[in-house]
Amino acid sequence: MENNNDTQRIKRSSSAWLGEMREFLRGRFSLDEDKAQRDEVVASISKGVVFRGVNLWVLIFATMIASLGLNVNSAAVIIGAMLISPIMGPIMGIGLSLGINDFELLKKSLRNYALMFVVAIVTSTVYFLVSPLSSNSSELLARTVPTTYDVLIALFGGLAGIVAQTRQDRTSTVIPGVAIATALIPPLCTAGFGLATGQMRFFFGAFYLFFINSVFIALATYAMVRFLKYEKKAFIDKVRERNVKRLMMVITLVTFIPSVVIGFHMVRVSLFEAAADKYVSQVFNFPHTRVIECNKRYAHHGHPSQIELLLLGEPLDDGTIENARTQMGSFGLDKAELVVRQANTTDKIDVASLQQSYLELLEEKNRRIGEMAAQLKRYRVTNVEVDDISREVGAMTTNVRAISLMKGITFDVSGAPLDTTLVCVVTPKVASDSIDRTTLANWLRIRTKVANVKLFVEP
């Protein structure tokens, strides 16, 4: 009987502890604290949807700044453009409108989304058409191939953005952080670069990245709106309500189904590339042979996946390469092809000698540059701050009417430079010996940092 009582007490204690833990976690993770009213949130997001006046000009300026950053390969400039761009508004408006069945907000969001896209593309295209720099920088190349990480960043960035928008205090750093993380403006500028330079792979790759980011930000907004159980818009006309709901459902499916397909495909590509990297690092680990290039191509258009390697060093025989092929199945690459290219043994490169030659050439250039800089410094005649020095001399002595300063080079009779000389000519107000030449000369040496000073006082 006593054991039963102990068991009951333990159960009650455990139940109470679990209840307290649930309440603690509910209080910590609750989104009800500081939550703004539904109508207030809708009005705030709806206001940010429209590109007119200030918003439109800020978009143009942000696009120009991002284009400059991409052009000169400056990540800091690109981040600055992300911070000021108002590009999140229409995308969050699309997600919100789908979540609350607001067809009018959806139409407004889509119109402004299209306007934003066109304005940004035209602005960046015009910039890159007139820019003298047209090289493919690393910042440009990074915006042409979307990865799984881009999808996850857009998804969680969108969640953070809509959570911040649903708070009463919207002055936090969340929205600027989301703008930086999701990086929407750089792909648009990269697409403009592709149009301006005729490199359509840049245009389509960057547009693909921008579209993926947009879809997953809208998806995150939609999911959070439904999680917060925002009241859906009611219609007086039931027929219109039914038609609008059907249309919204179609738009939702058309928007989000491709995102699922895209996300699934990108995950498979990432898994393939990770498996290929692991396979190459473990199997092609030879003491006298190095993998200097590894190209991974995931299966597309009916072609099998392919791993292409370029080897440098001691050539591998056919048996070794075939043995490497048999190990591909252990890494989940049994359906992939392995292509191995090796440098010809007669074309071996003495890397150490080549590197030493380049270092010697670089040292010689640096030495020549240093000599020329020193020579230029010796012969350069610098401007002396005559205006400041004349006022200071006037404050030191009252018998100076004017002062002339000139810095030059003293040469010997053979034409070789000896030293830098500062020549000072003083015109007194009254001809007298009241000017202390030694004190003035010493002061000029300290003031101008020139050791050789020649002082002349006009009679």
What's the topology here?
Elements: H1 2-29, H2 38-49, H3 54-71, H4 75-84, H5 88-100, H6 103-130, H7 138-141, H8 148-165, H9 174-182, H10 185-197, H11 200-227, H12 238-283, E1 289-297, E2 306-313, H13 318-326, E3 337-342, H14 351-379, H15 386-396, E4 400-411, E5 417-428, H16 437-448, E6 452-457
Parallel strand pairs: 2-3, 5-6
Antiparallel strand pairs: 1-2, 4-5
Helix pairs in contact: 2-5, 3-4, 3-6, 3-10, 4-9, 5-6, 5-11, 6-10, 8-9, 8-11, 10-11, 11-12
Number of domains: 4
CATH class (first level) name of the largest domain: Mainly Alpha
Largest sheet: 3 strands, mixed
Order of helices and strands: HHHHHHHHHHHHEEHEHHEEHE
Shape: extended
Count the E strands: 6
* Strand order in the sheet with the most strands: 1-2-3
Radius of gyration: 36 Å
Mean pLDDT: 80
Comma- or semicolon-separated keywords:
mainly alpha; single chain; 16 helices; 459 residues; Glycerol uptake facilitator protein
Write a brief structural summary:
This protein is mainly α and 459 residues long. The chain is built from 16 helices and six strands.
What does this molecule look like?
The chain is mainly alpha-helical and about 450 residues long. The protein folds into four domains: about 30-235, Glycerol uptake facilitator protein; about 285-345, no CATH class; about 350-380; about 385-455, GMP Synthetase, Chain A, domain 3. The protein contains 16 helices and six strands. The protein has helices spanning about 1-30, 40-50, 55-70, 75-85, 90-100, 105-130, 140, 150-165, 175-180, 185-195, 200-225, 240-285, 320-325, 350-380, 385-395, 435-450, and strands at about 290-295, 305-315, 335-340, 400-410, 415-430, 450-455. It has a three-stranded mixed beta sheet with strand order 1-2-3, covered by helices on one side. Strands 4-5-6 form a three-stranded mixed beta sheet, with helices on one face.
